[in-house]
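Handout, tutorial session.
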Amino acid sequence: MFPFHIPTVKTTQRGGVPSAALVATVLVLPLVLVTLASVPALLVLPFLPSGAARADRIVRQLSSWTGRLAPSAGRENRA
């Protein structure tokens, strides 16, 4: 959908947590801005012809970006 790619984080610092936390902190602001900018489209698109498919693509892309931002989020309970 958008021409940029959120990079996968490879930590090199001891423990890895500080650099991953820093990258996540820096990338949260653009993700929040894109999400807020998508809200009007998500409210209107389902009522337009073929808009539901476009709204679905937007939601899938936002979910993908969120998953890349926090790759370990929600995996604690998975088998």
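The second record follows below. Compare its token runs with those of the first.
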Amino acid sequence: MPNPPDVTVTKDNPLNVTDAEHEFGTVTVEPQGQIFVYTEAKVSITSLVVKS
């Protein structure tokens, strides 16, 4: 099983969590970045980094 992807979330590149994509490695949220959740599945994020 492959490792979950690392993601950087920015103002222009929000993270959309869906039924197909709900497991992530490191999620880095830049200022004004947004995460939208469109699933009832369990969401897994190994590490969440929020930058200010």
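Points raised in discussion: The mean pLDDT is 96.
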